[in-house]
Every structure is written in C-alpha cells, then in structure tokens.
Amino acid sequence: MRMFAVSAPGLETIVASELYRMGNCDAAAVSGGVNFRGSLAQLYDANLNLRTASRIVVRVDEFHASSFHELERRAKRIRWDQYLMPGARVQFRVTCRKSRLYHSDAVAQRFSEAVAKQVSGIVVGAASETADDGDADTDDPTAAQLFTVRLAHDNCVVSADSSGALLHRRGYRQAIGKAPLRETLAAAMVIESGWDGRSPFIDPMCGSGVIAIESALIARQIPPGIHREFAFQGWPAYDKALWEGVKEKRLAARQTDVIGAILASDRDDGVVKSAITNAVRAGVADDIQFESKPISAIEPPPGKGWMVTNPPYGVRVGDRGALRNLYAQIGNVVREKARGYTIGLLTSDSMLESQLRLDLEEVFRTRNGGIPVRFMKGFQA
Fold this sequence. Notes:
Blueprint: E1 2-7, H1 12-21, E2 28-30, E3 33-38, H2 40-49, E4 55-64, H3 68-77, E5 89-97, H4 104-118, E6 123-124, E7 145-152, E8 155-161, H5 183-193, E9 201-203, H6 210-220, H7 240-252, E10 262-266, H8 269-282, E11 288-292, E12 305-309, H9 320-337, E13 341-347, H10 350-356, E14 361-368, E15 371-380
Parallel strand pairs: 5-6, 5-7, 9-10, 9-12, 10-11, 12-13
Antiparallel strand pairs: 1-3, 1-4, 2-3, 4-8, 7-8, 13-15, 14-15
C-alpha cells in the first residue's frame, strides 16, 4: 500500500466522499486536498474516476534534511527509475518554508543531480513554485514528469505526479467560452446540488456546456478520465493489463437506463453550437437538449427538478452594474417558473447575490480561474 495525496483546493470534503464511495475508507481531508493509502489499481482508478480532484501524487519519500549534505544523501537513495524512463524530461516544483534549506532552486539542483546519476539521458526543466491549482498545466503528451518537493521545518516530502495534465482536462472540451468553468468545479456543483439523476436538470446559461455535460457523465456513471492519458502511463512500473482491467470494470458499470431530461440553453447561438460539439466529443450529446434562448424564455418541466448554473460574476465577463438586472431576472424566472426546483448557483459577489432575492445557503467555496467563488443552493417552494 502506498500513500497518495489528492490536490483539490476548496473541494476537499467532496473528494474525500468520492474516494469513500470508491472504497478508500481511510481517505482523510486535509488543507488543500485529501490523503489516502491504496494499491496501484486504486491509484489508476482514482485518476480515472475522481470527478472533483485536480491532481494525484504518489509519496516517494519523506525525511529530515537540515543541510545540503543530508539532502543529497537522501536524494540518492530514492528509486527515481520507478518513475522515469531513460531520456525522460523532469521538472521539480520546490517550496521551502521555515527550514534551514530555504533556497528552492538550490534544492531542486540537488535533486536533479541525484536523478541524473541514476537515470541516463534525463532532461531537467526549470524549477517551478507554481501552486497545484494554478495554470502551469499542459496537454502536451511529452510533458516533463513532475516531482513536488516540500520542505517545512526541515522535513522534506517528495512526491511524483501521477496525473500529468490537471484532471479537469477530460479531453472533451476544445471549444470554450470567455470565462471557462473547470470541469472539476462543474462536477462538484452537480454532486453538491443533490441531483437524483432522474428528475429534470436545467442550466439556462450553459456557455460551453460543461455543467450539463458533467451532469450527464455523472448520471451515466461514465468515468471522467476515459478519453485522456495520465503521467503514470509513462512510468517504467506501469502495468498496462492492470490499467485495462480498471477501465473495463468502470465501463461495465455505466448506466444505460433512462436518465432525467438535461436541458441546456444560452442566448449566444455560437456558444451553444460549441457546447454541442463538446457534448458530442464527451459521448453524451444524446442525453442533453441544447437550445439558443435567453433565460427569460426557458420553460422548466413542471414538478420536481434541479436548476444549476454559473452566471457571469462581473469580474471577467459583463459589467458589474449591468449584471444587477440579470441577477434580478434570474430570481424572477426561478420564482415564476421553477417551483419545486432545487437551485444551485456559483457566485462571487454578495451584491449580485442580493439581487436574486432567493433563499440560498453556501455549500462550499473555492476558486475558479483565480477568482474566489462560492456555490449557493436553495429550494424554491
């Protein structure tokens, strides 16, 4: 059994619940993520099936280091050849806090030298201190293998990134709007809305369609990572047969019964066309009814249902003052047309929230594209 750490800033408890449902009963939420112990198969499965995680790393080693001599000696003992093929590209992301070794570039250099002595032809990239939830991400399949090194109070923790591109990169979204919502956050919104998968589900400001697509993937129990590759597939210890078995098991569990109607609309016809393209690529286009129309024109099916959406915040898209009318209109539409519906909205502005005049409570808060946001939820009787 190995120790794994999941990066999920702001979504820790949601990821912990996901892992628990997957059978990882020892999953423990910590600041910024979740730690759990598991087998290689569970590592593969977590990358494939976690919907709200950003990255999964493997704990490679942990030791005390208050001098460079001590650091070099321990770095040489690490089995780098378990994670690196000859000629591989490597990057170290180093943070030093309250430690005698405080120069991150010098620490990265020692690890680079240790790797080069053990694995031939290694190409080491520049050290980085970008946060796990930042934009230092790539779809490049030849990207460097990332190792994170965290020194705090002279305790050094070394981890190997098993994911590669951040896990919100499902592989289906190439057409995006002006202020894209991360797939992981969209999935968290759907999960925390409590949607039962059978009742109608509406996103009246769908943008690139990510909330509707994630809801369909959840209802169908389609693994979110089924269309992408992961860093662990380039490791010498990669077990292809085990990986195929993990995928086969998840695919066999897909839901084929009828699910609730998923309705997605937006006033921008071009955006809707892009959303349809994304849904086709995700394999759920037949589960979603897309339309071009303003929120005032939606007609929610009567009875029990869910309306979950990501309206403009006034930070990147739209003028904050003009958005007051939009938020007031959202509130009017909900009160007039969505009785019996659970409402979920992602917001970043309390002033705009007040324009809704809806009884909503905060469920969780996180960041989207660097913007502090919170997911609000309520029921319209």
